[in-house]
Amino acid sequence: MSERLVQLQTWLREQTGQDCELAVASSDASFRRYFRIKRENGSQIVMDAPPKQEDCRPFIHVAALLREAGLNAPEVIKQDLDAGFLLLSDLGSTTYLDVLNSTSADRLYGDALRALIAIQAGVDITSAALPTYDESLLQTELNLFKDWYLEKHCNITLNESQQAVWQQTCKILIDSAVGQPKVCVHRDYHSRNLMQVENGLNPGILDFQDAVIGPVTYDLVSLLRDCYISWPRERVVTWVEEFYKQAVHSGLIDSDKVSEKQFMTWFELMGVQRHLKAIGIFARLLHRDEKQGYVRDIPRTLAYVMDVCQRSPVLQDFHQLLLSLALADHA
Question: In the chain, how many domains are there?
Fold first, then answer.
């Protein structure tokens, strides 16, 4: 047993008054690990977040914001920020990805869309004390695609004319993002971070520590154009239209200022920004962190980008650039 796990076991004994057997619950793309322990009245989750690499405070802060807004986020039961340990309520082990299929999708996404409206309408962005999803952060994320996927993974360096197209595309995507109404953004609202909850408020919501104040369509595109599962475009459009109606009803969108067509354009361009970032992260996880499982999701994610670029008048130059790079040969 590693020294870190011994330290965790000792802390748990102090907090619970018993020796706890650790069962791996999950891990993610960061340095955080999660374990499940059994208690008399059920189970709880232990987060192990090494303080040199991870800061537990954003997780605690955003968990409180979500719970105050009526969402089903984990309760922080015990904490040790210096050690990087949190004891949390357990939202179960069944992710949306485990149970999503053509039959269950409308029900599960219906719950997820209602929860997303609750996040956006229920978290007061003027007092939430969250970072802003500004132009600088959006550009930093886009650079992940060029730096880690094109250059590192594909060994492609853009020439001067290609670089000009890239910069033009970044401006289009960033301008679209910053021009949208601002809400609380979970920032990773997808099928691996939403839990199917049998006896409680569905969905359970995880992995929200990177929340920001940003574009109204960001979490929606994370959910409906998921890097880990895809749906026919017609079905996605129906879900987007339903969300738009809910957003108007909740006062998040002024239909006199933002038409359904404009909202769909925002959704499409936001998806390109997010998916370019995701492709870069998947490549970085392979080449920097030696986590090999994520690269298999690049082809699906790249297909989203190509589809939107092919249909978008403002992204035709970028579409031609991507075609010229023959990225499918590297995915």
Answer: 2
Quick one: how far is CA 331 from the chain centroid? 22
Burial 256-273 (b: 16+ CB within 10 A, else e): eebeeeebebbbbbbbbb
**Residues 311, 237 contacting (CB under 8 angstroms):** no
Burial category of 80 from C-beta neighbours within 10 Å (exposed 0-12, middle 13-18, buried 19 and up): middle
CA 39 to chain centre: 30
Query: Partners of 87 in the beta sheet?
Result: 46, 78
Last residue of a domain, one of 89, 107, 138: 89
My answer on whether 164 and 182 are in the same domain is yes
CATH number at residue 279: 3.90.1200.10
Give the model confidence (pLDDT) of 60-89 as tens digits.
999 999 999 999 999 999 999 999 999 999
- Residues 191 and 313 both lie in one domain: yes
Those residues with Cβ within 8 angstroms of residue 199's Cβ, 6 or more apart along the chain or in another chain:
none
Q: What is the pLDDT of residues 97-110, one digit of tens each?
A: 999 999 999 999 99
- pTM of the complete model: 0.94
What is the pLDDT, as a whole number, of residue 32? 87
